[in-house]
Amino acid sequence: MKNKFVLKEERHQRILDEVSLRNRILLSDMAEQLDVSIDTIRRDVKELDKNQMIKKVHGGAVSLGFVSNNPLVDVFDIDEKKLIAQKALSFISDGSVIFIDGGTTCMELAKMIPTKKKITCFTLSLLIASELIKKPNIDLIFIGGKISKESHMSVSVGAVNELSQIRFDYSFISTGYIDPSHGLSEFDWEVVQIKRAIVKSSRKAILLCISKKFNSQQNYKCVNVSEIDTLVTELDPNNLLLEPFKNINLL
What we know:
The chain has 8 helices and 13 strands.
């Protein structure tokens, strides 16, 4: 029997926390976490969407920060994400060929790239592209294909094929879930294929990840943690939370 005693206010806060942390959630996941019916979560999501706190999508919800580059949109843990982006910026030098993934932390990195920096940058994200197009010295290349209305990113077999023809010096990627044993994972099979192709096409794959995502996993595995060259978090590299990741570079 499903738990009928979780207060609506508590459910709403849990939903908001998960959406803010992972950018996107499934109704089924939240129903399992809160031990309530999917219909209950669906009603909660509709109400939160009506109040413009999240955006309802098929089977779940996404954060407003994930689908908007509006500076007025509140981004979860923005100070930590800016710190991660600042650390990652040190990898970008003139003449580099890089890839920047979608997501709010990657957006902070895109914003921080100096206008004088002369690089070639690939992306699948319309929002990242709209930020980088403002910088005159960046040679911007968009990897096309079917655009997801939920994430505003290109997700298709065509994009995977394009990625296989490129060799990035550095790729800056995001993830919704990371576990030392299970690796990086997602619940969208198309996204999994994209992530795998990005890592395979990268001389160095750099994961930008807030520590609150540690020790979590989803159904579909993208890559092992060992396939990531550097993990960039808001933590000091000597923090004990990073001990399970000690076999890769930490920043």
